[in-house]
Design a protein that fits this description.
486 residues, Rossmann fold, 3-stranded antiparallel beta sheet, single chain
Length: 486
């Protein structure tokens, strides 16, 4: 039989229910998860030894905390998953705007209800999701938005004087009572609004239109911020910063493997048509684009290169491959290196350039990143082991050979062209990139080898997909490989 929950204050008292502060509630549920070995933050990859232990320590210490990091570092996702550490449901006085504890109401409405109805005061049960309030900080946010304001219409309808607590229209923070209140991009809040936050955090009292109101809120406060915002658009005032228990610094994936895992997890690959098969080396090449971009001095590293970039690139590349597969009636969607060039808008739209980068242009930098990524990916897969085959490929192009590929060419057509390049298929086989694979995988592997040679400046590639001899300086051999900017 389903559990019968108390519906009145008297029933609640007879049930033996005891209220516990929200930070104690979160701590107890967190300890239970730690003992049982349940995942704490499902879907958060790469933080197991860095960020997550620090978040756990802050919660076990019953501290408010701030996540400090660049864009696309899963700050908001971590904050929103804190909801799972709340109890499934808690009782509140029916009709309360501030989730009044039936045993200890803090609002005048709640106190009056208990005084008038006694043990017959009605009880509602609210789920954990209703106890999470999130606000994106902007310069126009006011104290009234966060704390509350006097509502003259409510005063007139109820016949109350404006100083009466019953005339207050509560803001977001009081409505988060007995729950979690999150503020994203905290430095964007005006200084006077931040003052209102730390006052209610520490003393539990506020002034609304000059009237002092005691609001001993029970709330876990969590903030996020971008380090650049400390000086660019605003800053966290010192008294507020002093009242935040822990400052936890987030980061981008530290390994290619972690980055690939995040990208494959977040990218939309479950298309409703043909099956999608992403070769492992293609996923790795896409991830290396982001890693290289985070080291390139032509790209503004203060703004960061979001993890959303490789996710968008993979989705765009798969879409281009999907269009090609439908065009040629192929059995599966297999993205190739050419599809990364088709996904250029997903790269250029997510990087902010320094002055040197503006001189070069985002599109050219993106193409260089793709070629360099291919070279690093090939080296990681053991490129030196097939150097003899690669020399044959380079010799073919040095001798005047050319190869024209279109990103919408079928895998069969590509393989026919690749077969004309001595050593190319042997290099792919030697690397184990396409052993026993489909034509789509073999074509993708061949393109990786060619792009790697472009990245090493041993052959060239035009924007139209034409491979040929590497550019030479007058009277000399191939031009030197430019140093990595970073």
């Amino acid at each position: 039989m389903p559990e019968i929950r108390p519906r009145t204050l008297g029933d609640l008292k007879r049930s033996g229910y005891r209220t516990r502060p929200v930070k104690d509630e979160i701590r107890a549920n967190l300890l239970r998860r730690l003992k049982s070995g349940e995942p704490l933050f499902p879907g958060i990859v790469g933080y197991d030894d860095t960020v997550i232990p620090q978040v756990v320590n802050a919660l076990l210490s019953r501290q408010n905390f701030i996540l400090l990091g660049l864009r696309g570092q899963a700050k908001s996702r971590i904050v929103r998953q804190l909801v799972s550490l709340l109890d499934p449901e808690i009782p509140v006085l029916a009709g309360s705007e501030v989730n009044d504890d039936p045993l200890r109401p803090i609002s005048k409405y709640g106190r009056m209800l208990v005084e008038e109805r006694g043990d017959d005061a009605p009880i509602d049960w609210i789920p954990r999701d209703a106890r999470f309030v999130e606000k994106l900080a902007t310069p126009d946010v006011t104290i009234a938005d966060l704390i509350g304001d006097v509502d003259p219409i409510r005063a007139a309808r109820g016949g109350h004087v404006l100083a009466d607590e019953l005339t207050i229209h509560y803001g977001l923070l009081p409505r988060a009572n007995r729950g979690i209140f999150a503020v994203n991009e905290l430095p964007d809040l005006a200084g006077k609004v931040q003052v209102g936050l730390f006052n209610i955090m520490q003393e539990g009292d506020v002034q609304i239109k000059g009237y002092p109101v005691r609001l001993p809120l029970d709330v876990l406060l969590v903030f996020t911020a971008n380090p650049e915002d400390y000086t660019a658009r605003g800053k966290i005032i010192t008294p507020l910063k002093d009242r935040i228990g822990a400052e936890i610094v987030t980061h981008y994936p530290e390994t290619i493997e972690a980055g690939v895992a995040i990208t494959l997890q977040e990218a939309w690959l479950d298309r409703d048509g043909l099956p999608v098969q992403v070769p492992e080396f293609i996923a790795e090449a896409i991830e290396r684009i982001a890693f290289l971009a985070r080291e390139d001095k032509r790209i503004d590293q203060r703004s960061g290169v979001s993890q959303r970039m490789p996710i968008s690139v993979l989705e765009n590349a798969v879409s281009n491959a999907e269009r090609r597969a439908l065009l040629h009636d192929e059995p599966a969607v297999v993205p190739r290196l050419a599809d990364l060039y088709a996904a250029l808008p997903a790269i250029t739209g997510k990087i902010e350039l320094e002055y040197e980068g503006e001189l070069v242009g985002a599109a050219r930098i993106a193409r260089e990143l793709i070629a360099r990524s291919a070279a690093e990916t090939l080296a990681a897969w053991g490129g030196e082991a097939v150097e003899e085959s690669l020399e044959e490929v380079v010799a073919y192009f040095d001798g005047g050979g050319v190869l024209q590929l279109a990103d919408d060419a079928s895998a069969a057509a590509c393989l026919e062209g690749f077969g004309t390049v001595p050593g190319l298929l042997a290099a792919v086989e030697g690397l184990g990139l396409a052993r026993g694979a489909t034509p789509g995988h073999i074509a993708a592997a061949c393109e990786l080898v060619l792009e790697a040679l472009v990245g090493e400046r041993r052959i060239s590639r035009s924007d139209a997909g034409r491979y040929g001899r590497a550019p030479r300086r007058p009277g000399k051999g191939p031009g030197p490989i430019p140093p990595m900017m970073g």
